[in-house]
Design a protein that fits this description.
binds magnesium ion; binds adenosine-5'-diphosphate; disordered N terminus; single chain; about 500 residues; about 35% helix; 6-stranded mixed sheet
Length: about 500
């Protein structure tokens, strides 16, 4: 063992597999697969149907024996294959799809029987079993009547019983193979909560699910299989559903022009001959319901100045702004917010978010009236508003009270977007929304933008990266020296053509 490995002792995997091969009647179900799980981590195993996920789990839990040459390291010991008994004794537990429970037996028996039987002396003490069962359920934050027969419980609760059984078996790692397949949304939420509880308790969880939103929500890392082969291991942070799909299928869905015709929609914003001396000149444009209008150009082209005028931060010298058919004349951004305009500033870190403040406070700051009851701010309303948006936009946060500065760039950006969405805008102006956001997390921001446009929101997307507007906007305006000098339809123009115009 090298010294470097010694030095990173804490990051050592709990489970590590190498050179895993298995074939069923000539069909190679797994080909040279490796797989690693860290202690206490929630790890997602992703892949299309038949990609080998369940087979891999069955090898780890001793149901199948891999071809010779396989190496399985678990918690400091090395095996060429597992047996179900060894796996269980070492703390490898599985929640099988059929749960392998006994409906006629009590909850307590289902949870504790196996473990109590495995111990010496083999005296089955019901009181002891009840205590074990109740403690396990308590660790999961639930309380069931442990004396009732299991058949009285719904499938979601039985699943929790199976997880409690794994805990009693002193699980160090729990495998869940499509545990949410037959659950309702609220049952799924509860299960995901339990998975988090397990992880916080130091138990690693390997999770298989087809619902990618769930995968992104729950796991910190992701292993992708395709046709029995390893595609790769990725941090979930910054992953998007479309990227996972791409990895699972090997087909590229990224970088497709999203532009769709919006001609038949009503104008949300209509700007005519807008001028502000020294900043922009003779700006005329429209943004329709559900439309994303891209504005690109070099730095200093006047894009942000135009946005600030649309948001009531500065007053134009001449020209008109019409919102939903009514001409507006904002004297402050407060007027603009009231009229349904939201502006996510370029300078998110200094203007958009208040770094030392909590995630929740940052999110609600522009929509305080919504969380008010009789003149007082309601913590409950605040929490549920925040929880709703965190979920809607797939934001990874710790606790709502944690400072926004503890979040990654991509997640801060989502909170900044949520802050404005909470004001129920008609028009959302996004000024350089990917500045300070990791390349990996950028696609996620644009997925949100597309989703918002689909709900009918009119969006102005400002970016000096031409591909961002080319791929994500319905129309692209080119601004230079305060004027609109070009207009492009991404379905009819090429990226090269627009870039050539902008960088000419
Ligand atoms: P996943 O769980 O990702 O949907 P599986 O691990 O169940 O995929 O299956 C991987 C491949 O191995 C599939 O082609 C499947 O048909 C095959 N396979 C799995 N188990 C068996 C088995 N017991 N006998 C024959 N073929 C199997
Ligand atoms: Mg499967």
């Amino acid at each position: 063992m090298s010294q470097i490995e010694n030095a990173t002792d804490s990051g050592r995997p709990l489970l590590s597999l190498r050179d895993i091969n298995i074939a069923f009647g000539g069909v190679r179900a797994l080909k040279d697969v490796s797989f690693e799980v860290l202690p206490g981590e929630v790890h997602c195993l992703a892949g299309e149907n038949g990609s080998g996920k369940s087979t891999l789990i069955k090898i780890i839990t001793g149901v199948y024996r891999p071809a010779t040459g396989a190496v399985i390291e678990f918690d400091g010991q090395t095996y060429s294959h597992m047996s179900p008994v060894t796996a269980q004794q070492r703390g490898i537990q599985v929640i099988w799809q059929d749960l392998a429970l006994f409906p006629e037996m009590s909850v307590a028996e289902n949870i504790a029987f196996q473990t109590v039987l495995g111990r010496w002396p083999r005296i089955v003490n019901y009181g002891n079993m009840r205590t074990l069962a109740m403690n396990a359920l308590k660790r999961l934050g639930v309380s069931f009547d442990v004396d009732l027969p299991l058949k009285e419980f719904a499938i979601a609760q039985r699943q929790i019983v199976a997880i409690a059984r794994a805990l009693v078996g002193e699980a160090k790692i729990v495998f869940m193979d499509e545990p949410t397949a037959s659950l309702t949304q609220s049952e799924t939420d509860h299960l995901l909560h339990i998975v988090r509880t397990l992880s916080a308790d130091g138990v690693a969880v390997v999770f298989v699910s087809h619902r990618l939103a769930e995968v992104l929500d729950i796991s910190s890392r992701l292993t992708v299989l395709r046709d029995g082969a390893l595609v790769g291991v990725y941090p979930t942070e910054g992953m998007t559903q479309s990227r996972i799909t791409e990895l699972m299928t090997g087909k590229n869905f990224d970088n497709q022009v999203r532009a769709k015709p919006k001609e038949n929609q009503a104008n949300v914003l209509e700007v005519k001959s807008l001028c502000r001396r020294g900043q922009f000149e003779d700006i005329s444009l429209t943004v329709k319901r559900g439309e994303t209008l891209g504005i690109t150009g070099l730095l200093g082209a006047g894009r942000t100045e135009l946005a600030l005028a649309l948001f009531g931060m500065t007053k134009p010298d001449s020209g008109t702004i019409t919102l939903d058919g009514k001409q507006v004349n904002f004297s402050s951004n407060r007027d603009a917010i009231k009229a349904g305009v939201a502006y996510l500033s370029e300078d998110r870190l200094s203007l958009g978010l208040i770094q030392p403040q909590s995630t929740a406070d940052n999110l609600v700051i522009a929509s305080l009236p919504k969380i008010e009851t009789n003149g007082f701010l309601s913590d409950e309303k605040k929490e549920s508003l925040v929880a709703g948006w965190v979920r809607e936009l797939g934001v990874k946060i710790g606790r709502q009270v944690d400072a926004i500065s503890t979040l990654s760039g991509g997640n801060q950006q989502r909170i900044a977007i949520a802050k404005w969405l909470a004001t129920d805008p008609k028009l959302l102006i996004l000024d350089a929304p990917t500045v300070g956001v990791d390349v990996g997390a950028r696609a996620g921001i644009f997925e949100i933008v597309a989703k918002l446009a689909d709900t009918g929101l009119a969006i102005i997307l400002i970016s000096d990266e031409v591909p961002e507007v080319f791929f994500n906007a319905d129309r692209v305006l080119h601004m230079a020296q305060g004027k609109i000098v070009g207009s492009f339809d991404p379905r009819q123009s090429s990226l090269k053509e627009i870039e050539a115009a902008v960088y000419a």
